[in-house]
Specification:
- By secondary structure, the chain is α/β, with parallel strands linked by helices.
- The chain has two domains: 178 residues, 3-Layer(aba) Sandwich (Rossmann fold), CATH 3.40.50.1820; 52 residues, no CATH class.
- The protein is 37% helix and 18% strand.
- It contains eight helices and eight strands.
- The strands form two sheets. The chain has a six-stranded parallel beta sheet with strand order 2-1-3-4-7-8, sandwiched between helices.
- α2 runs parallel beside α8, α3 packs across α4 and α5 packs antiparallel against α6.
């Protein structure tokens, strides 16, 4: 059939009200981007480094930003600003070609990953490794310094630096930061409360929640926050042989396999 005759046939179908279905263009190959978030007083090259290495080896685009709670930055901006920084890392992966983006967090990084997904869209999956930082559970521990921070805010001294008590793996220490920053992380009614964040997760977002059997936080179990999230058929709660700091490396192969299965 000549080119002119083929064109005439197509035009005839249009005139007669027929539907011409042209072949879809080939779908671009999907590429998973993963933002990996380190824990309190950590760094991208510390406890999460094995997770980053394994994910890159299986072909993921990976970003591992240094977050405000790193040992170097030492809580230099608020929790809300930290979520903005996570969003910037997500956007950067999309600009690099990621068609879907997942968040993998450890400890306080897992807490923030959960809060980010609860308050913003566009996240394909969540991996939360040894999630921690529980201001509502430690309400009595933080209450004096929470009141101090609120008083400073109310009297116009919210950006004034002072010493506040904080916890890391159950041990208290003096944290030098501003009242505004301290309260954003430790308000028992604030954005860092994990059960509240879990309840706000989009039902379409699957969660892999990993705890170490030798981590004291494992005693909280699945009902503390994991079960508060909407049920997804691919969500999993896993307990592995690890402590709080070794959980990322111990779970890295599981994390990579779970994310790979989601992309299929």
């Amino acid at each position: 059939m000549s080119r002119i005759l083929r064109l005439a046939c197509i035009l005839s179908l249009v005139v007669l009200g027929g539907l011409v279905v042209l072949p879809d263009p080939a779908r671009a190959e999907e590429r998973l981007g993963v933002v990996v978030l380190h824990g309190k007083n950590g760094a991208p090259d510390k406890h999460i480094i094995e997770v980053v290495r394994v994910l890159r080896n299986v072909g993921c685009l990976v970003a591992a930003p240094e977050l405000p709670w790193s040992r170097k930055r030492h809580f230099d901006v608020t929790y809300q600003q930290a979520l903005v920084e996570i969003g910037m890392a997500v956007q950067d992966l999309r600009l690099q070609g990621a068609t879907r983006v997942a968040l993998v967090g450890h400890s306080l990084g897992a807490n923030a990953a959960l809060a980010y997904a609860a308050s913003r869209g566009g996240i394909a999956a969540l991996v939360l490794i040894a999630p921690s930082h529980d201001p509502e559970r430690h309400r009595d521990v933080f209450i004096a310094d929470v009141h101090k921070a609120r008083e400073m805010l109310n009297t116009g001294r919210g950006r004034e630096r002072s010493l506040f008590m904080d916890l890391n793996q159950g041990k208290d220490y003096d944290l030098s930061t501003t009242a505004e920053v301290y309260l954003s992380y430790n308000d028992p009614e604030g954005a860092a409360v994990m059960p509240h964040s879990a309840a706000q997760i989009n039902p379409a977002v699957p969660i892999l929640w990993v705890v170490g059997s030798n981590d004291s936080l494992s005693r909280l179990g699945r009902y503390y926050a994991f079960e508060k999230a909407p049920r997804h058929p691919k969500s999993r709660y896993e307990e592995i042989l690890a402590d709080h700091l070794t959980a990322p490396a111990a779970s890295a192969p599981m994390v990579a396999e779970w994310l790979r299965e989601l992309m299929q």
